[in-house]
Batch of 3 targets.
Target 1
Amino acid sequence: MSRSNEILQITERVSIPVKELTFTTSRSSGPGGQHVNTTDTRVTVRFNVDRTQSLTQLQKVAVRGKLRRKIDSRGVLSVTSQKFRSQKSNRESALERFVELLRWALKPVTPRKETLPTLGSVRRRLESKKRLARKKQNRRRNNPLDDY
């Protein structure tokens, strides 16, 4: 099976063909000693979120919203790996990170359940209100507490 026919399974319903991804290599600043200066071991995976056919419009909006810091103005998501000394390992690492990011971005947001305030928080709020009221009352010219 050639690499161009591979499919990345993101979730149960979402899969992305590897041919939609672009891989570029460059010099790494990671481990490798003098080897780093001579080989392109850093791998960057690029994925055009706007032009993909693998995601619905709603999913594209979710990905663009949650991953906005990793997506450039042209709608391209970039994931880079330079942890390892070999290009192959960095490619696998970048793909794993890419899948993790998309899974996280496509995970539905569970709505917050409203809860009642705890008894302790209610007590603290009322106590602070009483303290503030006493402080303001002490500032009055005809302080009713002066009679006591």
Target 2
Amino acid sequence: MRMLLLGLVPALAVACSNEVGGDLTVNGAPFAPTGCRNGVVHGFRGVALSGKDGSNLRIAASMTGEAIVAILPGGARAEAQAGLELGKCGLLTIGDQSSTINDVRNVEGKADLDCSAKGYTLKGTVTFANCH
């Protein structure tokens, strides 16, 4: 029984890990996502992405499937509500997964972004899964 439980712990840790990737650039530099959260944690339907450089992207779903993007530059706190809204920036496909963590349902999806606004240019695709 003990061996069964020890074997289950690594499997649970892998199943709960964020999966983020893609080829998104911000102002021509690669945006390297390191993690994600369900946007509901911040009050919107979508996903919040953490970048390796300390920046954060919030990608919200409009009723028509358009992606509305806000950026929090490196150094800005992810918990802060302040950010720079760039507006409509492409398409967002998002879906709920069956798992929940701390009463927050995981989401998965893909954002195809292409926009320029307020001194920022975003181009490319980002994929995400297990974002809670």
Target 3
Amino acid sequence: MRSIQAAFLTFVLAGISAGQTAARKPAPAVDKQKLADYLRYAEGFTSSVQIAVGDPEPSALDGFYRLVVHLRVGETKQDKVYHLTADGKHLVADPVWDLSENPFLETAPLIPADGPSFGPPGAKITLVVFNDFQCPYCREFARTLRENLPQKYPHDVRVIFKDFPIASIHPWARPAAEAAHCLSDGKPEIFWLFHDWIFEHQGEIDPGNLREKVLSFAKEHALDPAKVGTCLDIHGTAPEVEASLKQGRALEIEQTPTFFLNGRKVPGALPWKSLDTLIQMELNRPAFIPPAATGK
């Protein structure tokens, strides 16, 4: 599919005139309602957005047709242009979408499905969150997830935590990430206790007192402070944190939090109402669009 996009870019750079390459075959038939439903899901257009799909028109790109989609919210209007293949099966966008496949088909398999989690493994929605313990926006989003998801979607959503400490602006974020794994040692319930605790006490922590705070947490939860302290001193869980960072970089994450909802990439700390809308959109995904498999 990427070759289609490459052909489009090559064409633009070459500056071939529209008159020389205009499509001459009859325009493909378009099921406009089906296409509008696909775009609503793929682009994340809420129910407040009215979508009107235009007729395919000759395109400057040989073998493609220009398709204008008219968007409207109240009195605000916007047109978005796509390019449709001659067989009517693909739209040129970024990324290129195969209309018989999930729009996140290429992204979803790259998203790691391992790590501390809550929610049932067989849930309809997998929400993978890349977080930074020192990030105030991560704290707010963590609260949104923990306070709302178990109550409203106890069987439908699984949340997986991934580390993405941004050391350049958050000096104790990476040591805190290592500490979380030292403390939990494969026990998810301890990880989530620490996750909630450190975000709650975020404003009290600094690089100088992090170790003391972590060991105090260990004592309060009947963990071995000596074992935890050694793990911190030798950076015993640094490889886990580095692996998560590497995964995040491969997914081109630029800010925290960034999460992936069944493959859909969403940067920023969404408020509950907006997140709930995305969840409902996924749970009500049009039946003709297959699910995207998250994780390798």
